[in-house]
Amino acid sequence: MSQSHQAQIDAFMAQVTAQNPHEPEFIQAVQEVAETVIPFISDHPQYAKHRILERMVEPERTIIFRVPWTNDAGEVQINRGYRVEFNSAIGPYKGGLRFHPTVTLSVLKFLGFEQVFKNSLTTLPMGGGKGGSDFNPKGKSDAEVMRFCQSFMTELARHIGPNTDVPAGDIGVGGREIGYLFGQYKRLRNEFTGVLTGKGRNWGGSLIRPEATGYGTVYFAAEMLATKGQNFEGKSAVISGSGNVAQYAVEKCIQMGAKVLTMSDSKGFIHDSAGIDQEKLAWIMDLKNNRRGRIQEYVNQFPGATFHEGQRPWGIACHAAFPCATQNELNAEEAQALVSNGCIVIAEGANMPSTPEAIEVFNHAKVLFAPGKASNAGGVATSGLEMSQNSLRISWSREEVDERLLNIMKDIHSQCVTYGKDANGHVDYVRGANIAGFVKVADSMIDQGVV
Ligand code: NDP
Ligand code: 2IT
After folding, report:
1. Contact 179, 187 (CB under 8 A)
2. Is this model's pTM higher than 0.90 or not?
3. Residue 214, H or E segment
4. Which entry of 152, 168, 185, 284 is 20 to 30 Å from 178 by CA?
5. Is 235 among the catalytic positions?
6. What is the atom index within ligand 2 of the atom nearest the CA of 377?
7. Coil, helix or strand for 341?
8. 73-97: b or e for each residue (b if 16 or more CB lie within 10 Å)?
9. pLDDT by residue (tens digit) across 91-102?
10. pLDDT at 1 (0 to 100)
């Protein structure tokens, strides 16, 4: 990188850091974008003139509110609720809700900022937003989760709507939570409308939405492999997480002929050298989604497998790696272990799971690396398809939605190639995704004036 570009990036980041102290995750997400987009802006001065990047790092609106509720023992509980409405240049704010004790404004701002670029890449008209709470659904009864969701929505309902802001799920928010949130919104507004995505099939949800993020991540990785004349047949895959994204990434890997060796949760990972097949996956889905158990129970059911307490799976040799749990779950040392053990493709199912140092290792090794804002965009893309079906008051078949998802992932891949290919033919998917996502939003912001 030229010295002048580096100086511009440093000056920009100094300003962002000064304006957002104590927000390390947000600063990390902005830094990655600044490093790739600022050199591009210097060749396209209209974006500098309109101060587009400076505007994009400032959310259009941030809402923070008290969420009081009562637990089963009758005790009053207080959590903090958030919705960060980041950018509406190309459509209503769109993005998930995360319920997890580690949720802070910094985490939601990083997620909301990345969502703006991701949603732009999907080709669909969706702006970016993110929300959630430091509420921990783990260990809570259904009745407690319902009371929390009702209280959360009682405030959130003032700020969202099908043409304004359309939340969905993320960590800790699945079908159960979306149901309680939707029920309360409908009651408050006396209106049955597509204000949330990830809804149940009987009440406006789309087929394939539960599968979409995991499937889309594997579709994207298959596109990357195809650029090298390869596919998943006979390859091994290491996957972290055991929630929504991880489960369907495993399923699609199996369908494409790969052998999946690991899954994990916050307590450790399981390693099954015989491979997690469809039957074992069905058992895991029941464990996680119905019985709300822990992944370590897998080794009691399937004694050939081992549980590695407090560890992450990146030391297991594989051809493909899919981090599908949470941010900063894969560091430089682990990236080096993956590369040294022969890993050739990494596609992020989670948001920002690789640290900046890990990404440097992947870049240096010139392996295929897809950032989450490209490879996990199938989830929000299918949310966009759910919104379309709600507006049309029709429901597409499983095949139709899956085909649209596959085509969107292929389109995102080719956008990354267009903007990310260097003179030697190597594709930097981080640069490609950031610039392609930026251009559509930036041009729309210029069209709409200083708002
Ligand atoms: P779930 O709540 O269904 O599953 C989360 C999984 O990640 C669980 O296995 C959980 O383990 C693990 N996990 C969560 N936090 C941590 C942590 N701090 N340390 C270690 N493990 C952790 O969430 P999703 O599968 O929906 O989301 C996973 C990732 O994918 C997130 O980064 C999310 O932002 C991203 N994503 C999700 C999309 C979606 O459509 N759902 C779309 C695009 C991206 P445990 O049970 O022990 O907490
Ligand atoms: O990070 C994400 O893209 C999501 N959690 C999905 C958002 C959505 O609106 O479907």
Report:
1. no
2. yes
3. helix 209-226
4. 284
5. no
6. 3
7. coil
8. eeeebebebbbbbbbbbbbbbbbbb
9. 999 999 999 999
10. 79
Task: Give, using CA atoms, the residue closest to atom 19 of ligand 1.
Answer: 266
Domains of the chain: 3-56 (no CATH), 61-191 (3.40.50.10860), 212-375 (3.40.50.720)
Contact 318, 236 (CB under 8 A): yes
Helix (H) / strand (E) element for 133: namely strand 128-133
For residues 303 and 301, give the distance between their C-alpha atoms in angstroms, rounded to a whole number.
Answer: 6
Q: Are 215 and 405 in contact (CB under 8 A)?
A: yes
Q: In terms of Cα–Cα distance, which of 160, 107, 115, 94 is closest to 133? A: 107
Going by C-alpha positions, the residue among 259, 85, 66, 248 that lies closest to residue 160 is: 85
CA of 116 to the centre of ligand 2 (A): 11
Per-residue H/E/C for 135-185: CCCCCCCHHHHHHHHHHHHHHHCCCCECCCEEEECECCECHHHHHHHHHHH
Other C-beta atoms closer than 10 Å to the C-beta of 138 total 10
- One-letter amino acid at 48 equals A
- Between CA 324 and CA 241 the distance in angstroms is 5
The alpha carbon dihedral of 168, 173, 174, 175 has a sign of negative
| 118 CA → ligand 2 middle, Å | 9
pLDDT for the residue numbered 176: 97
